[in-house]
Design brief:
By secondary structure, the chain is α+β, with helices and mostly antiparallel strands. It has one domain (2-144): 3-Layer(aba) Sandwich (Aminopeptidase), CATH 3.40.630. Helix content is 32%, strand content 36%. The chain has helices spanning 12-20, 24-29, 35-44, 85-97, 111-119; strands spanning 2-6, 46-52, 55-65, 68-76, 101-107, 123-128, 138-144. Strand 2 and strand 3 (55-65) form a beta hairpin. Helix 1 (12-20) packs across helix 3 (35-44). The protein is globular.
Length: 145
Amino acid sequence: MIVFRKIDKKEENQAVQLVLALPSEVQLGYFYWPPDKLLSEFEVAESYGAFVADELKAFVLWRNNADVAEIMCLATGKDSQRSGLMAQLLNSAISVAHCMEWVLEVHESNLAAQALYRKLNFECVGLRKDYYRDGGNALIFKRKT
């Protein structure tokens, strides 16, 4: 059974392990979250996770700015990718956060993530040139709730 809930302080290291398990070309190319920076982000951001038997399978981390939630980081464990879990998690987080708008950036080459965001009614509203470490552009997606 999947449980969606806020991530406790003691579970933050599980989120770091999900990120560290991402393929090295992703971590070094554009998804750059060193463990210390990710852990410090938990101090200032809201977090929500998908748990199976107390094991974190996916998470989303966002900052609230008035009525706008800016997604800072999200990741899914390898064994749960392409399962629909992130779609369920994002819908759950959106329903509990009560923000009027959600914003995120995604690498232009990450077509799977873009398809997921579009499926969840996010719209591409802009571009940030040379945003990522590999020189790739970021597409800005927004969803009004």
